[in-house]
Amino acid sequence: MILLEMYKLAGKFYFEDGTISQICPDENESIWALNIKKGILSSFQNTMERFDVDQHTYERDINGDCLVRYSFKEVNGTTLALVKSTELSSCTNRHQLYSIIPLTPYVFQKKYYKWTPMNSTVSCTQLIDHKIYKSVSCEEQHMLRLLRNQSNSPKTISKSKLTLVVEKVEFQPMYPDVFNKLIHTARDLTEQAMTKLYKESGDICFTGRKHMKDALPFIRNRASTKVMTDVILSQEISEQRRQDWLLIMAFFPR
């Protein structure tokens, strides 16, 4: 029954260069089902700049803003094994309060460490073949460290594994024509209309926001330049796309 409840409602999320920046659940989604789906998506996230170089970085997922350590484990044929480790004691912004009273955000613990009686860690092994996840295995451990001899401390360990069973590739022969039509039609939009179209593109179709990001550099008018500038300043896009946009914008007519 629990699995049926989870599969009942579809959710949308935005995935780019290994980062999940947006999640758009159904308005009727239950909180517990949404949290499970967020946990699954968190295990998929990988913000490594290079797979062959270990990396320490801050990453936002279901646990908050956490210090994450990525390490290259091994290679088997064309499959890369990467390990993603998170110490939950490093996480900030884990709580959310909704109130009609204006409040000032305040982080009450140190950025890199806060004391807690629980020693909690999450470790995931990601198997990637040709930039496609083949499997993700995670182990989450919570240990109560009130005892001097921590080997006898009570602990809870949960394990999960997701495996790719079927890979489905959809071919859309009409996409180039539709994309060109979008570019030519959008050139007649005002700045206000272009901004509204970009903000609502994710609601139009599942990949609408991605298509808009692909189209903006080719529209080449004042409205698209304004939207691209706003998106760059909001740090919504990846560093690679930002550099590509800035290079293209340098050749725009002034």
Task: Summarize the amount of helix as a percent range.
Answer: 25-40%
* Terminal residue distance: 60 Å
- Proportion of beta-strand residues: 25-35%
Oligomeric state as shown: single chain
Q: Pairing-aware structural class of the strands and helices?
A: alpha+beta
CATH classification, class level of the largest domain: Mainly Beta
What's the architecture of the largest domain, going by CATH? Roll
GO molecular function, one term: lipid transporter activity
Organism: Rhodnius prolixus (Triatomid bug)
Keywords: Disulfide bond, Glycoprotein, Signal, Storage protein
Pfam family, one: Vitellogenin_N
Describe this protein's structure.
The chain contains seven helices and eight strands. With 254 residues, the protein is of the alpha+beta class. Strand 3 and strand 4 form a beta hairpin. Helix 3 (175-186) crosses helix 5 (208-219), helix 4 (191-204) runs antiparallel to helix 5 (208-219) and helix 5 (208-219) crosses helix 6. It is 32% helix and 29% strand. The chain has two domains: 1-97 and 115-163, Lipovitellin-phosvitin complex, beta-sheet shell regions; 176-251, no CATH class.
Short description:
With 254 residues, the protein is of the alpha+beta class. Helix content is 32%, strand content 29%.
